Amino acid sequence: MTGAPVTPASTPTVPLAGRDVARVGYGAMQLTHGGHVAPETAVALLRQAAGSGVNHIDTAWFYGAGSCNALIREALAPYPENLVVATKLGADNTADGGLVPAQRPEELRRQVEANLASLGVERLDVVYLRRLDFAPGIIAEGEQKVDLDDQLAELSALREAGKIRSIALSNVDAGQLRQALPVGIEAVQNVYNLLNRGTEPVLEACREHGVAWIPYFPLGSAFSGQRKVTEDATVLAVARELGATPSQVGLAWLLAHYARTLLIPGTASADHLTENLAAADVELGPDAMARLDASAG
């Protein structure tokens, strides 16, 4: 390969909620999803992440009806000053472990209070409003189809009251992002990866306005019917050439794609956590980037 390398390490941190956070963080959903991770294993994994320099953790009250937040609290409280814990609103748990929409302003307020209590904090660092207008995930219907401005007004009031620091959006289109910008939007979390670039217009809007971009399902997901980035022929070839893993190549491509990208790959494996964090040091040269960019989106 020729030319200067594209190195994510050249921008090792991104501002988020008033702190500079490492560009590879940790998504905690897998710690409670499916119920297959023992609590002591989850706590050890969170402490390993923090000890490895992770200072951005993504969670939600509806990850196990507060149980994921409880694990984060057990593992990391009292929280380091540089740690950002981001959470999401917009859904609630059912008795059988499923999810239902919870989009109404009064429901958002209750979820903020539940997050505060379960995390054991007085103010939430980043709160994502998870819209349910389109897949992946459940879709809002009937009285759960709530006007975005009404939701933003409630979150703005909660921010004014000191209960949240920063407002963010998840699962939105570019028009919704632009509609919300006057309120002050910290970040956007949408599905996006090398092989699924359907929300590219939202990423472009983030670039235009300097909003942090947090792609979820960064390596695809068989669970959601997406192709797995780690099985793509180009990714496999680049990984062999660089002596990296396919996961690291897929994550490095995202980091090199926009300087304000933050990653929150989730895992229940200590080895995979170490592998994911090392993606921040993978350098993709111009030739590799061009080949990856040309992969089917």
TrEMBL record:
Per its UniProt record, what InterPro entries does this chain match?
A: AKR, Aldo-Keto_reductase, NAD(P)_OxRdtase_dom_sf, NADP_OxRdtase_dom
Which Pfam family, any one of them, does this sequence belong to? Aldo_ket_red
Task: Give the matching Gene3D superfamilies.
Answer: NADP-dependent oxidoreductase domain (3.20.20.100)
Keywords (alphabetical) are: Oxidoreductase
Occurrences of domain NADP-dependent oxidoreductase (ranges): 24-294
Q: Which PANTHER family does the record match to this protein?
A: AFLATOXIN B1 ALDEHYDE REDUCTASE, ALDO-KETO REDUCTASE YAKC [NADP(+)]
Protein name as it appears in the record: Aldo/keto reductase
Species assigned in the record? Actinoallomurus oryzae
